[in-house]
Please model this.
Amino acid sequence: MANIHELKYTYSLRMADNAWILSHRLSEWCSNGPFLEEDLALTNIALDLIGRAQAFYNYAAELEGKGRTADDLAYRRNERQYYNNLLVEMPNGNFADTIARQLYMSVYEYYFFMSLQNSKDETFAALAAKTLKEVKYHMAHAADWTVRLGDGTEESHEKMQQAINNLWMYTGELFEADETDTALIAQGLGVDNPSLHSLWETHIKNVLEEAKLSLPAANYMQTGGRKGVHTEHLGHMLGEMQYLQRAYPDAKW
Amino acid sequence: MATDTQLDLWEVFIQGRNGSHHMHAGSVHASDKKMALQNARDIYTRRGEGSSIWVVPANSIVASNPDDADMFFDPADDKVYRHPTFYVMPEGAKQI
Model:
């Protein structure tokens, strides 16, 4: 059985990885947004996520106590050592795909950090409270766009529904609890993921209803991210993301 | 003729802190009120510039016509007595 420091290290790393990988995906929109204002909105969200990732990587590095820095954790691990949920590594696709990913993830994060605010770990609780303010905005941004596209033109409706359907299979993983989760839940330190599922689904259902979209039918759910087993997309992304640190270790401006 | 593919134009007003007035900050493109407010937030208040935002559809603003400038503004040029500078400032008042 891992000790409490190791458990919290893993937990912090997972939260950091989710924020970090999603922030990289969103930063890929930089200069490619549908119009200038939206380009800024997406990269602004990416910057919120970088800030969150940095805070959780710093805490993870501190808990690990082996002298690794937040940068080491962000840039010097291999694909199988990343523990983000599969949803956040999904490619940007078209704008509707990105919005569907944002909707699923930010609504999940909203309930997750609401709960983590009550963690008995003071750092987790404080970071959760700070993160929650940002997540509320991310959620409003995603929900408003879902409604605009879903209840927009015939083409935007179709693309939004397609995106909602395509990513559905990556949402089940968000509500799993493994040994790390269970041990931390028992001590009042972590979030009871499975208990968030019905809250999340009701919330998503309401947004989709307003957007005149339908909730995908229950189906096969892909899993593996928390164990380091990823889709083919993550490796390619890391290749680009880590290039500089790998080619020029410890490069300075 | 090239058609304008941009969304509607909105003018953005930012209040720096409680009590001060909203100042014109610039404009954004957006298709509805919510989007206008969010875009304004993302563009003009990212570095802590504001505590309140107004967005107004640009076509709702009634502007003075430059051709009317002589009629509108010139008559004010030579009426110094309209400035309250002929009063003695009461002791203790910082501004009138």
